[in-house]
Target: Toxin-antitoxin system YwqK family antitoxin
Amino acid sequence: MKKLYPLLSVLFLIVSCSTELDTLQKRGDTYYEINSEEPFSGLIINKYESGQKHTKGYLTNGREDGIWTWWYEGSPKNHIRLYLDNILDNLPYLFYDSWENYGQKRKVVDYLDGTKDGLSTEWYENGQKKEEGTYKDGKEDGLWTGWYDNGQKEIEGTFKDGKPDGLSTLWYENGQKRQEGTENEWTYWNEDGSLKE
Model:
């Protein structure tokens, strides 16, 4: 039991030393305690009026550092970010459904050096994939595909430097092709599959 006292003291100290972000002053990209010239370092915990956690993370020398987590009120974990030296890095930005389907993944986006870079996937509330594609240096790049909530493909096209590049195709919810073409030349179909005049 004696060995637990130092551990409990440390835990109490950590919890009691947390600060709310809105009690700090932001100057540029750095947080300071009010009337202090020393950048703040420590645990940040913000809460809703109900007492439920809203935000939790650490500041080191006044800047976001490590894992930061946000919650919607009345919900479990909402999303997570990893900061390395105040730059969002190397951890997908995760969004979770906030109400009915607790813990259901809604969107995952890869970041590199604070910029979207890599795979981006989004899901409907029912768990069906909604959209998937890749980013390069913060811009859509490569194949992007979108689906209806029943799993039927809705749209597919490629991007380069954030702009449509090449053939794009759209489908009706029944699976019939709706339109297909490039930026200036499109062919259109009716829902029954007949060519539109």
Q: What stands out?
A: Residues 155 and 170 are 4 Å apart (CA to CA). The first strand starts at residue 24 and ends at 27.
